[in-house]
Amino acid sequence: MQSQYFTSEHDLFRQSVRQFIEKEVVPNAETWETQRQIPISIFNLMGEMGYLGINYPEEYGGTNADFWYSVIFLEELARSTMGGFSTAVSVHQYMAVNHIAKIGSPFLKEKYLVPAINGTKVASLGISEPNAGSDVSAILSTAKREGDNYIINGSKNFISNGTYGDFITLACKTNTSAGANGVSLIVVDLNAEGVSRTKLNKMGWHSSDTAEIRFDNVSVPVQNLIGMENAGFYYLMESLQLERLVASVMAVSGSAHALELTLQYLHEREAFGRPIAKFQAIRHKIADLATEIDIAREFVYSTCWKHINGNIVVKECSMAKLFTSELSKRAMDTCLQFFGGYGYIEDYPICRMYRDARVGTIAGGTSEIMREIIGKIVVDGAAYKKVYRAENS
Ligand SMILES: Cc1cc2nc3c(=O)[nH]c(=O)nc-3n(C[C@H](O)[C@H](O)[C@H](O)COP(=O)(O)OP(=O)(O)OC[C@H]3O[C@@H](n4cnc5c(N)ncnc54)[C@H](O)[C@@H]3O)c2cc1C
Fold first, then answer.
1. What pTM was estimated for this model as a whole?
2. Ligand 1 mean position to 262 CA, how many Å?
């Protein structure tokens, strides 16, 4: 069907990413899930394919393509049936290096953006701490200026790409008495002296590598500051909209893929002498799910359109994240049910997809926090303004 958002060039790109995921990713799912991480070689390969700098400037190796290419890329990532893999790649491109791409100095772009785009360095984003997740302004990690360096101390928790990542976009306090107005973003090499990392054992997203990271007197040159000192909280609040949109795109696509796999099974599996696809109880549930997924996709696409066209989409991104992550949990549960006992067996991707969907309503801002943001806008009439904006993003 013709789309109001995608051109025939976009469709060709989708075909190429789909083939790549089917050939290079899906056959490795069991191995990567068991190894509890994806290999660095897949980042190298994706870098070579030009998949890691879709919206970034050509002078740094990116393709400078429009955001719809990213939407397609993310939708295809989600068809891998591995939330862990999708997270590792999307955090790298859309949550960690986007700050450097938008407001980083030419020095930072050369040193970190270029290798991130060509897939030779893996990036992570460090906001959450053992005692501060939803309340970002309450973070305790500090960066104290000493001559031409910052000395960093503190701990970060739940950091995706944390164990094998090469560098981190770190949120830390450069002014400890200014609350949200004292947060800065600083790039830290994760192999630097004083950094120690501990891998976390998770319920799902097994192929993503999640870590607790400690920083003990880690010395970082002041050139590693991203943008302005003490403006980090506002940079984060704005970029979290992109993070939530990215999560929403993947949640809808993952749910749609689960439905696709389930429909195939419903037609193959027989009970009481006919395919289970013929039972009305099942058909009605599938009809409800298909309706919700289609409506969610349209809302997410329209939010992407508004984002591309420079609108402030705090409300829409929060609504999209809230609705699609909750939908994904319901979708995986419904689909698994129709696989019967096989849905509970690891050989069937729906088993992993069910497990992986659970964290969607927690990571990147919980459902409760999404409701808080929406409530502030809808009930209190709160308004937001732009902090920064780059072309094509
Ligand atoms: C697998 C995984 C990967 C992650 N990757 C990253 C990463 O790469 N980088 C990173 O920085 N972080 C990452 N996170 C952290 C994630 O963003 C946080 O877990 C999330 O923001 C919630 O913070 P918290 O866990 O500290 O929960 P808390 O903030 O302690 O919240 C606990 C509960 O209280 C509720 N709550 C808190 N405040 C309110 C309120 N005002 N009103 C109502 N309810 C409230 C929450 O909704 C939640 O239910 C990851 C987490 C996971 C699990």
1. 0.96
2. 31
